[in-house]
Amino acid sequence: MKLLTKSTFYFLLLSLLAMVAGGALLYFTIKKVIYKQIDASLITEKTIIEDQLKQTDTIPDFEANFGHQIEVKLLNYHVKNYQSIKDTDIYDPDSDSFIPYRYIYSKGNNVEKKGFIITIYQTLSEKNELLQDISLYLFFLFFSLLLISILINYLIARKLWKPFYDSVRIAGKFDIQADKPLDLPETDIVEFNQLNVVFDNMTRKMRYDYLNLKEFSENASHEIQTPLAVIRSKADLLMQQKNLNKDSINLVKSINEATTKLLKLNQGLLLISKIENQVFHEKKMVSLKRIAEAGLDNYKEIMQLKKIKVEFDSTDDAMVEMNEVLADVLISNLLSNAVRFNVDGGFIKCQIDATFFTITNSGFPMTINPEDLFKRFHKSSEQSQSVGLGLSIVKKISESYGMSITYTCHDSIHKIELNYRQHGQYTGIS
Amino acid sequence: MKLLIVEDDRSLSRSIYDYLKLEGHICEVALNLSDAKNKAGVNKYDCIILDIGLPDGNGLDLIKEMKSNRITGGILILSAKSSLDDKLTGLKIGADDYLTKPFHFAELNARINSIHRRNNFLGMNEIVFNEIKINTDDNQVHVNDKLIILTKKEYDLLLFFMANRNRIITKESIVEHLWGDNVILTDSFDFVYTHVKNLRKKIVSAEGRNYIKCIYGFGYKFIDS
After folding, report:
1. How many structural domains does chain B have?
2. Are B79 and B178 in the same domain?
3. What tens digit of pLDDT does each residue of A66-81 get?
4. Which among B15, B102, B168 has the least Cβ separation from residue A239?
5. pTM for this structure?
6. A284 touching B, CB under 8 A?
7. In this predicted model, what pLDDT tens digit does every residue of A262-276 receive, in sequence order?
8. What is the number of structural domains in chain A?
9. Domain that holds residue A31
């Protein structure tokens, strides 16, 4: 739940509780006041009649009006003084309903020690109506006050929290690989400024570490190239020497193999770091179809040798705006994988349509999750020759152009699907 | 051929020097840009093997200077950076070829030969070795004046062997030469074997001699005799 919604919700909830409680209290207070007033007027009226009855024994004339009745009964014996005020309902034949009344019932004696009974009825219906009206107005008043205060509360909170949301939005867009630091706007709220400073320091540190690491890995890869070249050249020279015995040959051979592997590894890592560093920013329209054709042609002899059947089926030229070198690396890596991990007498099917570039090939059944092969140094088998970077390079390239790629394997049929139409700007970002 | 090796890493320049000398070239070494400029100004080289990242400047400056002083000679750029920019700039301002470190000597040799051929036999690109005649213009190969039909890869392989006669060529270097080094195709030695076998068969069937010798553990050697 959003902060604003939540605070509004709680405000509403508490206000409603307060309103109900306050309303009830007010209702009963008013009711009590009204009763008190009625009772007081009943007593006053009774006292007047009583006074009159005490001096004379005639019943005074009363103006009978609706809802107000006075009954006086004279007795010829002495009664005990008594007075009570109660509620009652009296049947009204006109409206065929019971109407609430308040009445005073009083017994007293005059100077001749003869008793009388005074009963005064006062209808409550008018007062109840009054009470209802007051309640209704109060309700409307409360309700509109509530609405206004919710609105004000919402607006204030929104204004107060705006810098926070701004910061969150900017921080959310933070990209460690972009070459600008997080730029959070200054606010006049101390807490948010503190938060921004924390954010700022954190991302600054992150960027610093990231750049350091990136620079380190790129430099390391670069610097390794020259010593590797030296090792390879020395091994090459050693190899050319005459009269090498079998042991020496095996030694040089091992050195050579290890150097080649190290070299491939280094080249792969260097390529990945270059993609990340957006070295390949030049781009033009390239046809994946044409690249795939050239790639398949490159492996023609190998495929003939392995008796691999090739099917090429394209309904689209697959024109994509990207870097030519990367496009080449992307497609030829996919093709070389399809050739390398194929079986003798297998097949390779390359299909290109308006959205997908699909390579399906026979191979060996896989025990691991095919998607894991996109990670660095993940290999399907312990093939000592493979360095395990090919598919992570493929992934890196496709991601950097916003293309999505999936790898599925059913039985021993491998399928890689590249959606080359989800084509965005070259970002170099994974 | 007279060659100038411009490379600041002593060990590497020494290796290149040794190897190219074995090939029968006359070699000189410059360890920095100013030395290279001096040497290129005084002597005439058939080809300059030029490292770009030098301690006292960018190797590309040498190319610019040579071009403005109209000094002829092939230029092969050698760089640890396989950056495309360097490559394009280098080729644009007048370098003949570009090779990324680390390289196989066989590859370096083939590139130098190819530059030399292009610069010296304009239009008449023919390599003749005993009974084998290769025309690099129309990519035709004759053995004993009999045309033999080679696939593209076999043709490339033959040229590669020609450039590295009497030298051991590793299978790795053949793979890289034939399929490029963007592709990690390390288990393709069998294919090298097949290509070599086919090439040998085609030459022998035209009554050529079997020049390609298998060297245990390493690869192959194209021998003269």
Report:
1. 2
2. no
3. 678 888 888 888 888 8
4. B168
5. 0.61
6. no
7. 888 888 888 888 887
8. 3
9. 3-147
